[in-house]
Amino acid sequence: MILDEIKNRRSVREYQTKDVDDVLINEIIKAGQFAPTAMNNRAVEFVVIRKQETKDKIFKICGQEFIKKAPVLIIPATDTSKTNCPVRDLSVASENMFLQATSLGLGTVWKNVSIPSQKEELKKLLGIPNRFKIVNIIPVGYPESESPPHTKQDFSKDKIHWNEW
């Protein structure tokens, strides 16, 4: 049941040094590729980074230690010449990837890339064409520790409005 992955999915910022097999990375990306896109444009592509030297350079651009320490980084990018909803397309793909990673026993976190200069530096470093948009980096790895799942106390019926506010 997908609700189990939703309840168990937590932001992970500390990772074991254990490698993540390419088969698992492909399954995570498959979930991203299966995400809905505006008018079924299917314009989302993915850059997978394993090289420590590249992760160190990304850290210098974006900060946050987990960028250097995660075994794998995935950067979703979408071709803006093919979509009129790039942020939505990237967000839905990322969420699918988070849930798939959780189901595989892996941890992820949304590392926001919102500063224009950071986006441009990352695109240049990774050779991402100008017409592509990026909004986040997804570190992937085995969590250093286990986080508690969401509980029924995290659900609030007070935030549901039926038929009107």
In brief:
This protein is α+β, with helices and mostly antiparallel strands and 165 residues long. It contains six helices and six strands; from the N terminus they run ααβααβαββαββ.
Q: Would you write up a description of this structure?
A:
With 165 residues, this protein is an alpha+beta fold. The chain has one domain (17-142): NADH Oxidase (3-Layer(aba) Sandwich), CATH 3.40.109.10. It is built from six helices and six strands. The chain has helices at 2-8, 22-33, 52-62, 66-69, 86-103, 116-126; strands at residues 44-49, 72-79, 107-108, 111-112, 132-133, 136-141. Strands 1, 2, 3, 4, 5 and 6 form a six-stranded antiparallel sheet that branches. The longest helix is centred in the middle third of the chain and has 18 residues, at 86-103. It is globular, with a radius of gyration of 17 Å. The mean pLDDT is 95.
Shape, principal axes of CA atoms: globular
Instruction: Specify the helix fraction band.
Output: 25-40%
In the CATH scheme, the class would be: Alpha Beta
Structural class call reads: alpha+beta
Which radius of gyration do the C-alpha atoms yield?
17 Å
SSE layout and pairing:
Blueprint: H1 2-8, H2 22-33, E1 44-49, H3 52-62, H4 66-69, E2 72-79, H5 86-103, E3 107-108, E4 111-112, H6 116-126, E5 132-133, E6 136-141
Antiparallel strand pairs: 1-2, 2-5, 2-6, 3-6, 4-6
Helix pairs in contact: 1-5, 2-5, 3-6
Search tags:
165 residues; alpha+beta; NADH Oxidase; six-stranded antiparallel β-sheet; globular
